[in-house]
Amino acid sequence: MKKSIEKPFFTPHPVLIIGTYDANGVPNAMNAAWGGQIGGSQISISLGASHLTTANIKLNKEFTVAYATADQIAACDYVGVASGNNVPDKLEKCGFTVTKSDKVNAPVIDQLPVTIECRVLKITEEFNECIVTGEIVGIKVDEDVITEDGKVDVSKAGFVVYDTVSKCYRAVGDSVGAARSIGRKFE
Q1: How many helices and strands in the chain, by DSSP H and E?
Q2: Fewest 10 Å CB contacts: which of 38, 112, 141, 166?
Q3: What does the alpha-carbon distance between residue 99 and residue 39 come to, in Å, rounded to a whole number?
Q4: pLDDT tens readout for residues 44-54
Q5: Where do the domains of the chain lie, and which CATH numbers do they carry?
Q6: Looking at residue 54, what is its pLDDT?
Q7: What are phi and psi of 60, to 5 degrees?
Q8: What is the edge-to-edge ordering of all strands in the sheet holding 129-141?
Q9: Over the stretch 135-145, which tens digit does the pLDDT of each residue have?
Q10: Going by C-beta distance under 8 Å and a sequence separation of 6 or more, which residues neighbour residue 40?
Q11: Whole-number pLDDT of residue 161
């Protein structure tokens, strides 16, 4: 029997680390769990209007999105807890180093295996939130998580998701079936 609950939720969410540069070229990153892919070549993220990352995106019109990983979860959590407005050296404090993207004016965090490089298509401001829609213009992937046929091996990458109900991070687990294939048994 199903029961109605009062508090709405939508879970899980990918844990995304948004990378930007400020006006002086200082790298910044923040943890954002409110984002996802739109179609095949766009990404949308929801950011608070007061974040340094938001200001940097508005300034540069470019950003990176790295997937948080289980082996870097403390550092990934820290960049979401510490505000770049108050802690300008938060990347250094948590041990993250960066390399400048060759596709966009934004940093690639060296310790995270998969990074999406984006250019802003649109910023919508509403209710003290900014919805940033970006075009994916490149992807950087560590060689050790690429399969022989050139795909990202998610199980090797160690991605995590944010469980909004339990307010915790969960590791992405094993495959339970081939998408768009396993259901064909009902045809």
Answers
A1: 4, 12
A2: 166
A3: 28
A4: 999 999 999 99
A5: 13-186 (2.30.110.10)
A6: 97
A7: -90, -20
A8: 27-32, 16-21, 62-67, 114-126, 129-141, 42-48, 35-38
A9: 999 999 999 99
A10: none
A11: 95
